[in-house]
Amino acid sequence: MSTKDFIIEQLKTEISGFKAEISEKSVGRVLKISDGIALVSGLSEAMMSEILTFKTAHGDVAGVALNLEENLVGAIILGEFTAIKEGDEVLATKRILEVPVGEAMVGRVVNPLGEPIDGKGKIEASKFYPVEKIAPGVITRASVNQPVQTGIKSIDAMIPIGRGQRELIIGDRQLGKTAIAIDTIINQKGQNMKCVYVAIGQKESKVAGIVAKLEEAGAMAYTTIVLAGASSPASLLYIAPYAGCAMAEYFLDKGEDVLIVYDDLSKHAVSYREISLLLRRPPGREAYPGDVFYLHSRLLERACKLNADFGGGSITALPIIETQAGDLSAYIPTNVISITDGQIFLEPELFYKGNRPAVNAGLSVSRVGSSAQIKAMKKVAGKMRLEAAQYRELAGFAQFGSDLDEDTRRKLERGQRLYEIFKQDQYQPLSVAKQVLIYWSLLGGHLDNVPVEDIRKFEEGLYKYADTNNEVLKLIAEKKELSEEIEAKMKSLVEDYKGTVDYLLK
Amino acid sequence: MKISPKQYARGLYDSLLGKSDSEVKEVLHTFVSILGRDRVLSREKEITAAFVEIWNSENGEMAASITSAHELAGDSREAVVSYLKNRTGAKSVILTENVDKNLLGGFVLKYESKVLDGSLKTNLADLKASMEK
Q: Average pLDDT for residues A176-192, to the nearest whole number?
């Protein structure tokens, strides 16, 4: 049927049906362009964070209006700004900056504009969410009541995180901040959680490694990665966390639980400082602009736990801050510490002593998470926190003399074993039932005759033994509390296993 | 405090209101000496532009430019002017006309920061884009 005549006939009807539409467009001109920032004249009706289209000789380039002045609009350019020249035409699109969201984003690596950069083809998203959104209000919220299992022993016990909480991970470079976040993502398998990992100013090689690791662990099945690499312009770094949050909000609105990691917000603040200074906003402390607090507070307020009337979904945020030489009192760290519901503080001393993850149990807190712990964990964690604090206090003395009384010696021995248990390898998250088992064994004194240097070997063996005698772990996971029956079963399990090893102290 | 060119122009306009020709000369003389005192004579261009803008908006005058493929006939010029008057509420319109054969047909009207693009060239580009979809 598709002969030449037919095609021409169709073409004719199409063309006669084509209505030339004239619509008024708001147009401005580029007055000045430098370092990814453009000053545009005209555009009197431009909105805040509206998408602007720069018409260049090499095609269109998108930008975002950020400064609305009397006769000027200051815009950041998202993408290749070298093609833009002075005098180029700029069109206002009447659209606020938005990103594609939806199920299609899961398992993908995208840039902050939602475009795929993993080479797996186009993303067919039907929905778009605005990048900037006001956080849910008081009426819609509920208090945190469900745990996020990070799978990291020291964190789940001492610094528990609840769904909807914002827990800061803070520490110097190379202490394993990202490792904690990635382990947490890996541990969300089967926990009914979607994850978003936002890499801000990270090395692309590092992100490639993370993607490979997540794929290997099967975690990409529920994870989206938003990447604004170190070579991206500051404008993309600036919008990346908001774009990631918009993608998370899609699942929140569906009543699902989402975990979002911002890695890291210090680089985000630096990129915002760059933009602000180029836009000639007045600098303040450490040359950051005056609204750098609002920059992070409006982002982290979007993490929330909604109540049942509003779907009951949650966004748990794990922002990461990199400190310089452990300086917690710098501007950005203090800001973010005050915004979040607690922090996990990593310490170089612990790290180099071999206590990894190097979580400083004294300076780390979780302000709301304990209400979300399961009962079984709460029971062991309370006692354990006390043991840890007493050990830290005594450990200082212990270096001086060996003439210690019985009680002190016992506490030191217990503490050494506890810190041995805190040690955990990367990419090996542990189920909450196993964590309860090991902590319970320690606090019940069942590990007192295991030599300190063999604790980890013992631990590993115990888990294997428990896996084959699955009953206890299953019971803890189901009941979520420690009944006398379960305690009796744990006791017999530990004693049975101790019967099989030959390195116990007499 | 620094005074913007717009503020100079506004001041000049306000002080000229209701003045006779001879008074105007005097006011201008004072104005220029003030500019000299403030050392802003070099910004004369910006001040003049701002003054024209204020004058136009106060007197309901509006500048617009139209580019068409062929020279405008009288009645279409009338139509454009009355369209602009309706649209913006201006009392009179100063229309500058250009001819650009590259547009092929139709016209491009520019006023304030708006563009009304009804040229055949743009329409053909749109047609091409919609067919490629």
A: 95
